[in-house]
Automatic annotation (TrEMBL):
This is Outer membrane lipoprotein-sorting protein. The keyword Lipoprotein applies. Gene3D superfamilies: Lipoprotein localisation LolA/LolB/LppX. InterPro entries: LolA/LolB/LppX, OM_lipoprot_carrier_LolA-like. The keyword Nucleotide-binding does not apply. Residues 1-23 form the signal peptide.
Length: 215
């Protein structure tokens, strides 16, 4: 499980840069739903998700771990198990408490940073999008949307389940070409909280005994 978490934090949710030369198809109904959710999140001062992260093979999740995610504007903080990721608007800080390592890097145009709502923006250029009807997820009547890569990027497809009444994501499933599956199920959602002003700041002084590598 630790290896899977590390891959996700460091970019297993990677989306290759794709040009519009490919015949991208986006269903109008699905687009409206995703755009409404995006606009809802963007209208908030900040958002908080408590979620479970599941992973497995052949479409079956066999292990889950809790996670938390804070976001404000383009900044975010993500924690799963003993791994934490901070994006301060400029650099990504991957912190592994178990290995006592920190990796610092700038995001680049060939990858998309991991976040529970990452696909709400990347779908616009990089996926074919279809509306697959209604499906009950964790007791919620959701709209079921399928994303299929326009260009090969290691992902077979992504499922997004949305509570359209609240304009919130309920669940996301990523299925890889190698049969890996990763699932984020949002358990709790809060918005416009009074956050610590240093929430998205990496303080080197707190990691004096860590190996820090800047790429």
């Amino acid at each position: 499980m630790k290896n899977i978490i590390s891959k996700v934090i460091l970019g297993s949710f990677v989306v290759g840069a794709v040009g519009m030369a490919n015949a991208q198809k986006i269903d109008a109904k699905a687009k409206k739903i995703l755009d409404d959710v995006t606009a809802n999140y963007n209208s908030k001062k900040n958002s908080y998700f408590k979620f479970s992260f599941g992973s497995g093979l052949n479409g079956q999740v066999n292990k889950t771990e809790p996670g938390i995610y804070y976001t404000a504007g383009d900044k975010y903080k993500l924690k799963i198990m003993d791994t934490e990721q901070i994006f301060d608007g400029n650099k990504i800080y991957n912190i592994n408490a178990d290995d006592m390592e920190v990796t610092i890097a700038k995001p680049n145009g060939n990858s998309a940073m991991f976040s529970p709502i990452n696909y709400l923006t990347t779908y616009r250029n990089e996926y074919n999008v279809t509306y697959n009807g209604k499906k009950t997820v964790n007791g919620v009547n959701t709209d079921f949307i399928k994303l299929t890569p326009v260009k090969a990027n290691g992902i077979q497809f992504v499922y997004i389940f949305v509570d359209s009444a609240k304009k919130q994501m309920v669940k996301l499933e990523q299925h890889g070409n190698n049969k890996d599956v990763a699932v984020i199920a949002i358990k709790e959602y809060k918005e416009n909280q009074d956050l610590d002003p240093n929430m998205f700041v990496f303080d080197k002084n707190k990691f004096k005994n860590y190996v820090i590598t800047e790429l």
